[in-house]
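We were asked to recover a plausible sequence for a given structure. The inputs and outputs are reproduced exactly as logged, with field labels preserved.

PROBLEM: sequence recovery
POSITIONS: 236
GIVEN STRUCTURE:
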């Protein structure tokens, strides 16, 4: 079902009047009056609607609400991913898009000793995440935090599970079932330093291998997200 974000609620009607959302629904997806659409609110609200009016002059679509709270395609617990931003913008785009599709709820850019990328495009990442939410049928747009230094990782709050990718680890991410919030961390392209590894272990992180090969940052992030979502039972 075609999806978009609505901007206003007027009685039993929802209004889409932001140019990019209107254009996507009407020009790209070619939605027409009488069709059913899925409209999302920024707060996670979700409605099945029937298109009532399309005003091309005002670039406005109005739809009548039919049903609230469709099937919530969200994981049972929160997964946050802390990562060193890849040096290539395209790689960052892939990381945000695919991890959003899998169910990540929070992205935390981290500057490590060997991080190469410093100028981040957070607004672009948010746009990519919003589109991935629509495509994947999710209800909640992930939070994208401002970047932090490695030394601030300990300030991120309480998580029941904390993992980081460790290339030569003999440990695998294998649990009967993950039943709490998770923080996973993916280091930079040049790998973590020994000092950083020691700090993570002392801070309660568990180093795990993601396979026998060395993965790019964006690949490691997607694999990590998928493994954790699977252990949560979120891939039924």
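RECOVERED SEQUENCE:
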């Amino acid at each position: 079902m075609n999806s978009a974000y609505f901007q206003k609620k007027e009685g039993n009607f929802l209004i889409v009047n932001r140019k990019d959302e209107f254009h996507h629904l009407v020009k790209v997806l070619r939605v027409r009056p009488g069709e059913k659409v899925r409209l999302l609110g920024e707060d996670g609200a979700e409605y099945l609607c029937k298109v009532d009016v399309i005003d091309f002059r005002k670039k406005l679509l109005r739809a009548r609400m039919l049903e609230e709270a469709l099937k919530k395609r969200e994981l049972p617990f929160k997964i946050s991913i802390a990562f060193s931003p890849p040096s290539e913008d395209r790689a960052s785009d892939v990381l945000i898009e695919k991890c959003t599709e899998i169910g990540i709820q929070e992205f935390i850019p981290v500057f490590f000793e060997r991080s190469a990328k410093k100028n981040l495009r957070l607004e672009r990442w948010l746009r990519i995440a919003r589109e991935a939410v629509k495509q994947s049928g999710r209800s909640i747009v992930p939070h994208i935090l401002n970047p932090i230094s490695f030394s601030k990782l300990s300030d991120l709050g309480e998580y029941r599970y904390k993992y980081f990718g460790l290339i030569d680890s003999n440990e695998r991410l294998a649990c009967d079932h993950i039943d709490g919030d998770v923080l996973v961390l993916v280091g930079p392209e040049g790998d973590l330093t020994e000092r950083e590894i020691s700090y993570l272990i002392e801070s309660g992180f568990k180093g795990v291998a993601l396979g026998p090969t060395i993965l790019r940052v964006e690949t490691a992030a997607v694999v990590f997200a998928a493994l954790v979502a699977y252990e949560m039972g979120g891939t039924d």
